[in-house]
C-alpha cells in the first residue's frame, strides 16, 4: 500500500529542523481535487506546527473546487515567515492527493525534494469527454524529480480503517515519519479539526498509514 522510491544519488530524507533549531523555513505545497480534503490537511499541518512553536502562514486557492477543480494550498513555517506563498521550485515537500494534481504542481517541488502522492486517479472533464487521455507513468515522472517519493494507496488505507473519506488523513499518516513530531502531537492536531463522530476512524487511518510508512522507510534505508 506504500512504496518508497529513493532516487539513486539523492540524500536520504532527513527530518526538518525543529522550532528551536535553525529556524529554516520549510515549505509544503498540497495539491488535490475539490472534495478530497486538502483544506483539512492544511489546517491539521498548520495546527501541528503552531503547537510546536513555529510561525506558520498558509494560503489556499480553491479554483472551482465545487466542480472537481484543482485545490492548491501552501504551508510555510519558520521562525519568521513573511509570505504565505511558496515560490515555484522551492517546496521541500509536495503532498498530492491525486495523481494528475501531483503533475500539475510538480514544478513547485525543488529538485531532490520529497513527494508524497496518493495513487488515486480522478479524471477531469476533458478526460471524461474523451478530449484528452489521463497521463500514464505519473509515478515514474515524480520519481525523476523527487529525492524521495512515497507512493501511497491512500484510498485502500482509508477503507482498511473503515471510511474512504479518511484518505486525506491516511496520507498525513504516511507523511508523518518525515516530519519531526510525535504521534501525540499529530493526534492533537487531528482531533482539534474533526468532529467527534469521525475522529476514531480518522485516527485509525492515520495510525495504519504511519506504521506502514515507518516500516517501508526503514526497509528502504537499510543496507542491502
Furnish the topology, listing elements before pairings:
Elements: E1 2-6, E2 26-33, H1 38-51, E3 55-61, E4 70-78, E5 91-96, H2 99-105, E6 109-118, H3 125-128, H4 138-145, E7 148-152, H5 154-161, H6 167-175, H7 183-191, H8 196-220
Parallel strand pairs: 2-5, 5-6, 6-7
Antiparallel strand pairs: 1-7, 2-4, 3-4
Helix pairs in contact: 1-7, 2-4, 5-6, 5-8, 6-8
Brief account:
This protein has 224 residues and is an alpha/beta fold.
Features:
224 residues, alpha/beta, 38% helix, 8 helices
Description:
It contains 8 helices and 7 strands, in the order E-E-H-E-E-E-H-E-H-H-E-H-H-H-H. The chain has 224 residues and is of the alpha/beta class. A 7-stranded mixed beta sheet has the order 1-7-6-5-2-4-3, sandwiched between helices. Helix 2 (99-105) packs parallel to helix 4 and helix 5 crosses helix 6. The protein starts with a strand and ends with a helix. It has helices at residues 38-51, 99-105, 125-128, 138-145, 154-161, 167-175, 183-191, 196-220, and strands spanning 2-6, 26-33, 55-61, 70-78, 91-96, 109-118, 148-152.
